[in-house]
Amino acid sequence: MALYREKHYDCIQVHNLPDFLVFSAAIPKLFGAKVILDIHDMMPDFYAASINRGMDGFPVRLIVLEEQFSCRFADRVICVTENARQALMNRGVPEEKISIVMNVADSEIFNRRTAKNIRSDYNQDLRLVYHGSFTKRYGVDLIVHAVNQLRDQIPGIQLSLIGGGELRDHLIALSEKYNLEGKVHFSDSLVISTELPGLLRECDVGIVPNHNDNFTDGLLPTKLLEYTALGIPVIAAKTTTISTYFDETMVMFFEPGNISDLSSKIYELYRNPE
Question: How far is residue 238's CA from residue 248's CA, in Å, rounded to a whole number?
Answer without folding.
Answer: 10
